[in-house]
Amino acid sequence: MSGAFGDVICIGEALSELDKLREKAERNEDTTSIRHERTITRYLGRYAEVGPTGLGTSMYKPQTRISVGHNDTVFIYEFKSYQFRLYGAETSIGGRRTFLATACNPSKKKDKADPAILQKAAKVFQEYLNG
């Protein structure tokens, strides 16, 4: 997804879970999937157009800084749509601001983010950037 502010790219688990959500919504499987899909797509589009300042913390929330190696850290952010969460980090790809979504929790039950998912998001992000 591209916009005036930058790009949003989903990879790995984030992409596969978002695709599953879209398939459920297209089949009208349940109203929750439709609501999650519409909301998360709207938030990703808003980020691409105006950036994080156009999103409140109920939509886009900083989580934590994760260590991924020798003096390397990644700040993980979360896109939230009810219980569906996409995790990733901001970077620059091809000279454009980019949010790279790398992990997902499709049915988050607790208020606090799962540390294992945050760690996975940071690891996949770093691996993607390092090729």
Kindly describe this structure:
This protein is an alpha+beta fold and 131 residues long. It contains three helices and five strands, in the order βααββββα. It has helices spanning 12-26, 31-50, 115-129; strands at 7-10, 60-69, 72-81, 84-93, 96-105. The chain has a five-stranded mixed β-sheet. Strand 4 and strand 5 (96-105) form a beta hairpin. Helix 1 packs across helix 2 (31-50). The radius of gyration is 14 Å and the shape is globular.
Question: Brief overview, please?
Answer:
This protein is of the alpha+beta class and 131 residues long.
Overall body shape: globular
Task: Give me the Rg, rounded.
Answer: 14 Å
**Helical content, roughly?**
25-40%
Strand portion, in percent? 25-35%
Order of helices and strands: EHHEEEEH
Decide which structural class fits the backbone: alpha+beta
Number of helices: 3
Outline the biggest β-sheet: 5 strands, mixed
- Strand arrangement, major sheet: 1-5-4-3-2
Q: How many beta-strand segments?
A: 5
The average pLDDT is 92
How far apart are the first and last residues' alpha carbons, in Å? 21 Å
Question: Which residues form runs of ≥5 with pLDDT under 50?
Answer: none
